[in-house]
Amino acid sequence: MALCYQLRSLDLTARKASYAAKVEPHIMDEILSMVVDLIDPR
Question: What is the DSSP string of 1-42?
C-alpha cells in the first residue's frame, strides 16, 4: 500500500526510514503520477 497523500513522509532521512520491499516499475509510475497530480494539478 502506498499512501500518496502523505507527502511529508518523503523525507526518508529525517524519519530514519528503511526500505521494506521493491515495487514493480508500473506501480511506481502510477504512484509518481498521483504525487505529481497532488503537487501540480494542472
Answer: ---TT-GGGG-TTTTT--------HHHHHHHHHHHHHHH---
